[in-house]
Amino acid sequence: MRDLKNNLTTSGKGSKNIQTSRGKSFGYQVLGFGSGGGFGPPIDFEYLVVAAGGAGHPGGGGSGGGGAGGSRTSFPGGTDISLLGGENTITIGSGGYGFVSPNICNSGGDSSVVGDNFTITSSGGSGGVSNTQNGVPGGSGGGAGSSGGDLMTGGSGNIGGYSPPEGNPGGNNVNTGPHFGAGGGGGIAGGGGNGTNTTGGSGGSGTANTISGGSVTYAGGGGGSTYNGGNNGSGGSGGGGNARNNSTWQQIGYSGTDGLGGGAGGGNGNANTAGGTPVPGNTSTGGDGVIILRCPSAEGGRLTVAPGTNTKTTAPGGGAVCTFTVSGTLTIA
Length: 333
Prior knowledge:
Layout: E1 6-10, H1 26-31, E2 43-50, E3 71-73, E4 81-83, E5 86-90, E6 99-101, E7 104-105, E8 111-115, E9 119-122, E10 207-209, E11 216-218, E12 273-274, E13 277-278, E14 290-295, E15 303-306, E16 311-314, E17 320-324, E18 328-332
Antiparallel strand pairs: 1-8, 2-3, 2-4, 2-14, 5-18, 6-7, 8-9, 10-11, 12-13, 14-17, 15-18, 16-17
């Protein structure tokens, strides 16, 4: 395993990548040996990097589900990353919320690990859409919207072009009634379901990962809604939000789950606008992302995570596990 001088960052929604400023001792950096305050050797980490899910559009017609945040991992059996001693800044991507335009919602924020010689990025899931809108590309793509009569397609996934892919496309709508179901958002394990003439498409499934010691499913897509009171699409496993239709007027969908990167579900009933202008707060919210780093248990004593919302634990069977659900720092002594 090569040793890389690297930094750990992620991007929140609407923010830019910020490269950490790491403190290094003069003795370690220049002389190559400890000289008062020097850090120990680098540590190899297995990783899971999940971006944030996209927002769910609240209505106007059938609304496509938000795409799940892209998900990339080295666990188990992939290539570790090697982090030098010092302070590493971590910023967790925020779930998509609000509008790009009246018919298109915001996508989730990217999550990334950035080093001198490499960058690992998972792309934010795309925001949901309404009316006659194609889905938006993202880590996983958003489902197509539908208000009836026009055939629209879901947004493409794996916008980063990675291999293996970080996510899947959203589902298509259906252009026959009576309810013109919109597409579900894509997930890491599968594409969003297509709408039918009675039901919105289901969100694409997430994938289970045991890097933390227990099995947790991440990155499910949001469900698509319908026009004129049909059935709701269910959210995908891994934090995808269910859709809601307009059986009761002006309902938004259910939000994605924070810490899992789930896409938000679509709604219906024109809750999104007042006189054609988007109303703040009237979207469902994508789930925030997460970064998990795991190294040998023997190295755990060298690690400090901050703030206290983030955690350092020992996984069953061994391995020091640092889980970041909010922005903070990983310090290696």
